[in-house]
Write a structure and sequence with these properties.
The protein is built from 28 helices and 29 strands. The protein is of the alpha+beta class. The strands form 8 sheets. Strands 5-4-8-2-1-11-14-13 form an 8-stranded mixed sheet, with no helix packed on it. Strands 16-17-18-20-19 form a 5-stranded mixed sheet, with helices on one face. A hairpin with a 4-residue loop joins β4 and β5. The longest helix is centred in the C-terminal third of the chain and has 36 residues. Bound molecules: zinc ion. Zinc ion binds next to α3 and α4.
Length: 895
Amino acid sequence: MTRHFRQLHRTSERLALVVATMLVIALTALTAVSGAAAEPAFSFDATPGKLPKTVVPIHYAIELKPNLETLALAGSEVVDIEVREPTARLVLNAENMTLSSATIDDGAQSARIALDNDAETATLTFPQPLTVGRHQLRIAFTARIAKSDSGLYVVDYPTDKGNKRMISSHLAPGDARRVFPCWDEPAFKATFALTVTVPRSFLAVSNMPVAREETLNATSKRVSFLPTPKMSSYLVQLTAGELEQISAEVDGVAVSVITTAGKRAQGRFALDSAIELLRYFNDYFAIRYPLPKLDLIAVPHGYVTAMEHWGAITFRESLLLFDPAASAGTARRNIFVLIAHEIAHQWFGNLVTMGWWNNLWLNEGFATWMEAKATEHFHPQWQTWLNGNEHKQSAMSQDARGTSRAIQHPVADETEASAMFDGITYYKAAAIVRMLEGYVGEDAFRAGLRRYMAEHAYGNTTTADLWRALEAASGKPVAAVAATFIEQAGVPLVVGETSCAGAEQRIVLRQERFTIGGPDAAPRRWQVPVAVGPLHALQAPETALLQDEPKQIAAGRCGEPVKLNPGDIGYYRVQYDAAARAALGRSFALMSPADRVNMLADGWALVEAGRASSPTYFELVEEIGSDDGRTVWEQVIRTVKRLDHLQRNRPERPAFQAYARAKLRPVLDRLTWDEPRPDADGAGPLRARLIRILGELGDEDVLAEARRRFAAFLRDPAALRPGLRDAVTHVVGLGADRRTYNTLLSLARKSTHSVERERYYSAAASARDPVLARDTLNLTLTDEVPSTLVDDVINTVASAGEQPDLAWAFVKRNFSALAAKQGSSFRDYFVSNFMQVFSDPARAAELASFAPVHATAGGRIVAARAEQAIRLDAELKARELPAIDIWIKRRNAGD
Ligand SMILES: [Zn+2]
């Protein structure tokens, strides 16, 4: 599953090669490390979860009759079960539904039914205990179809022929229980045969192909699907609507992109990508994709960006379809990566599944690593690892805080499981997997994964099972190496201090725990493979395994720059002494883009940690030339944006904005607004980002040019290239008056393209005029703004629109109405995420006392993280902004 829209970036083949070589060297040194992962191999009886394991499902035959008008769902199911020890009590999951009857073995016994909505269970008590062995359980039930993100839900979307309604489902991690009673934990794998009644004009899609279709009457039909392979309940999928498809066959598998009527041509790029990727994974895992078909379904305004349901992957329409007339050419990169992620899950997650959510990283860390690996294979020019640096940085930032957790972490219930879908599970884990692949070598790593898939196909695993397969294939102690990064939270800091003995330079390395806002955090130790590189790749970097004791290493001639973590491969921060830092600063322009990004990112992280002051970072920024690459400038833009946000309401903000404009404007001037070959030079994403930030920083020329181009676009849409439309519309939205605001809204209302609707609603929400902001907020209570956009629209009013107080007052006043409309994830997570727009301790306290966010265990975890983030921002503001004021004054005075 992927929750967040990913920005894609570029990396060089040469760099990747250097990196791979370095890692092998770095990690070979680790073979001597002893110690083993504490976790045992998977065992069904020992795996965590709440349901008793005395009864297990074997096969479900489920019949659903959704009513798309009343949103009632009538259902019945026959479940073949295996009773493992005699019991009269069956406990399974059911939530927000009514069970009218439950009988066993053709009515031999009827159960007394007790529902527990808090535990989300149904307890069925039979007069006589069931004997050990096979039985058949028959249940009749009624449930509700949602208008939001959990279970079976309806989607209303505009078309040229008026508004239409379709149905889709999202059951991960624990919402199958809202659609049919079931053993809704990943270790209870079973086969599922679904039958559904839908309107005759609908195409119904599930995990497996249609087995049978029969017409019931003039308006409806009954569609039965073939049974699935053995799988977890969270992977069940049902989508139905006025849909169409384009298809192709790959190695005997029918691959299709399914869209709403009239849009299938926009699925061509996705289909071509899926064909390439399915072949790639068939070969990589050496187990053929086991289902007869693979559908990629575009859901207009889908809730989660994408979800890997076996054989029927769902995507938010705007992230799967590509229309050259409406989307930036670079959107293809995001589409390709997202498809790679979800197809990788067909093995990692679907064929072999983590036993419980504490090992979610086995699904998500691997799919995230695999998306980059597969994309580098097909499109090396996109530089996926380098350009994905932003994600690694945000995971490291989260990991340095007291509210972080280990990749492998206890999970009590499904709300805590939802809170696990974060940067640690996705991006820290992917970075560690990349490091491990380097350690065991690409071929041995693949052999280990093939072994793991073959041994555990259709089953469940723990991390220990993976280590075992990798150790067997590589002969290396993988578990011991990985344990310090997988089983404990936190980021190592490598401190490097140079010294001279005659002409010879030495560097002494030692490790500490890198923390943000945790001066009293308990010390921790890692096995850190530290690479020590010269600036030029002529010599191989030397590597040292840093453990408890400091290490001293020869580092060239005295005064020569010494770079640690060359290529930015390692998962650690680096702090240099003043002399080493100065030598590196002088050589900044000679470094590879990955090394420059690494220096800037570590430099800024040290400021956030209170280990360095802001001028050390800004002095490094002064060394960047306007001709530098995208990822380097994007690191600067992120920092500028963060600081500009903290500057809000300060009298010194205009001086900061003037400094930032002076740094960034020459980069845009060099790129120019137009490019000779649209979206082909890789500068497109940086150009768009520069236009946005310069608009936000109040650059008058950029604001005027954006307005000019928008006016031309209104006269003739072809006048504005798709690659510039998001940025130009955003900038126009910031300064919108009533007339422009109404124009943006009418463009949103008119469009049937998800990409365009998102663009125009977002631009309208960016308006800084408080009267318009109020109107935008009120729109979120109506049916006009799709539920999937409501969170973004409110957040945009607060952030880009700079009306956080107005937006917060609105959220508090309308919390019940919004929560009812938006569903459980809004109740659990929205407010905590939203409140991070503030950097005032009073708001952290207010969040701590805002009762609804503490209703679930997962909600409490996310709220605690958010409170800490707000307090840390307040500290950063108090500590660093005055130092930045002084630095800018001195710079302006020419000191
Ligand atoms: Zn995923």
